[in-house]
Amino acid sequence: MSAPFEERSGVVPCGTPWGRWYQTLEEVFIEVQVPPGTVTKDVRCRLQSRHIALSVRGQEVLQGKLFDSTVTDEGTWTLEDRKLIRIVLMKTNRDAGNCWTSLLENEYAADPWVQDQMQRKLTLERFQRENPGFDFSGAEISGNYSKGGPDFSSLEK
């Protein structure tokens, strides 16, 4: 059994009734499938630090308190090909230990296996950032990687 890992982008998506969401160390991405032919005036999207509200053609699609805080001024949404809304939220806490387990506080949680794969991915992303000369793209993590994995910053170089 494996999480639905997308090799091309390196994301571990969490499926929802309206689309999917996924995350990196810095951002949370939300992709919402909307009826073909949707135009921007059909969309109402309100992004706040801890809240999100999205409606399309007067129908509420997504609304609630986010799992963790985001940078309000840096949240964006776009309508792509008149059938997909992509929302990008910038995490306030951008370390590998901040793996969102759900999109909203009590909704759209990743199942335990997907959560595990998300945490592994964020830990690898952290290792890549800390060691820019190394390629971690084919790396596997085992052992203690929860909360961002081990901290090697105090080791002598």
TrEMBL record:
Domain CS, chain residue ranges per copy: 14-104
Xref: Pfam families: CS
UniProt record, GO biological process: protein folding
Domain of life per record: Eukaryota
One Gene Ontology term of the molecular function aspect: unfolded protein binding
InterPro entries in alphabetical order: CS_dom, HSP20-like_chaperone, NudC_fam, p23_NUDCD2
Gene Ontology CC terms: cytoplasm
Region described as Disordered: spans on this chain: 135-157
Gene name linked to the record: Nudcd2
Protein name listed in UniProt: NUDC2 protein
